[in-house]
Structures are given as C-alpha cells and as structure tokens.
What we know:
Elements: H1 3-26, H2 32-55, H3 57-64, H4 71-97, H5 99-104, H6 109-132, H7 160-175, H8 182-185, H9 188-206, H10 210-216
Helix pairs in contact: 1-2, 1-3, 1-4, 2-3, 2-6, 4-9, 6-7
Amino acid sequence: MTLGKRLVVQTLTALLVMFAGLFLTAGTFHYWEAWVFIAAVLIPLVIFFAYYYKHDPAVVERRLQRKEMRERQKWVMRFAAGVSSLGFVIPGFDHRFGWTRQWFGGVPLWAEISAQAIVFVGYVGTMWVIDVNRFASRTIQVEQGQRVVSRGPYRLVRHPMYMFVLLMWIAVGPALGSLVALPFLALEIPVLVFRLLDEERMLRNDLPGYQEYCRATPHRLIPFLW
C-alpha cells in the first residue's frame, strides 16, 4: 500500500474510532463537546499531514509507524490503547447517563471551553515538536543520521512530545463535559512515565550526544519540576 493510501486509511480509521467511541456511547449526535473535540484534533492533523506529505514524506512515514520493536514497549502501547479507548467511551456514557451532572453539578461552560482550547494547544504542540525534530517517530527507535535536537520545545524538557500529550489528556475529560473520566484518563500518566524512562535509557546508549543534552536540560516532562 502506498504512503498516501496508508495515510488516508489510518486517518479515516482514527476518525471512525472517535465517532464510535463518543457518539455511539452517548446515544446521540447532540453532543457539541464531542464535535468541537473532534474538530480540535482533526483540523491540525489534516493540515499537518497534507503539508508534510508534499514537502517531507519521511516525516509522515515515521508518524504512521506503529510496530514497536521492543517487547516491553509493545505491552506499554497495548495498555495505552486501552486507556485511550476509555478516554472516549467513558465521556460518551457520562453524557448519556448524566453522571457528572448528577454527582458534581456538571462542568461549567467556561471550563469546557478552556479545556477544549487546551486540547487544541496540546495537539498543535505535538505538531511543533515534530516540525523541530523530524526524527520524532511514533515508535521508540534511533535511526541512522539521527541527531540530538535541543532547540524549540526541547529547551524546556527532554520529552516535549509527552509533555503536550499529557497536557491534552488532562483536558480531555472536562473538554467532553465529563469529570467521571478523569480517574481513567489519569492512567495515562504512569504509561507516559514508563515509556519516557525506557526511551531515555535507549537514547542515552544509542544516540551520540544525548548524555550531554540530559545534563544541559535537567527536566524530563514538566518544566522546572521533573
């Protein structure tokens, strides 16, 4: 299958998963939070892939890779896929049965809008990371010719991709009008930490100059904290 066909298939598959996870569980299409959420993710995704498909297809190729080579990372990504599914399924059921409205009085409109903005900023942030580091792959690997990147978001933390992903996942629940989903979405935190630490061990061993970069950039995930 050509790169273009793979890109279309994976994009449509992701879109169908989001639609099914949100609207089937909600039992209705009258769920404005879900529509805004999908737009906040889909619009920058389409623009990003359309640009790089034309100007740097290797970036698209790396982002479409899903097969992990390291056994422990295969298990991590299976668990992460389960957590991601909960991130869509729980808010949908919450919208249908009104758990957050009954137990917490609902999510204020200003909080929902702010969370939607955070989701958008977080997703655009991941695009920024990839633009700065063209070797940022979906899988953990070191490629021939890869070098340490220390500019842009890499000045803040050693793993800015995970930083923006964490920012997004914290906001997903409120963005979709669900506080009940927060404990389930919090499961993403240990997944990110484990994946980050394992990736860092590999980079220290296999990527020239990474040890020096770690000394110059002390924080891994959260600026000024860790």
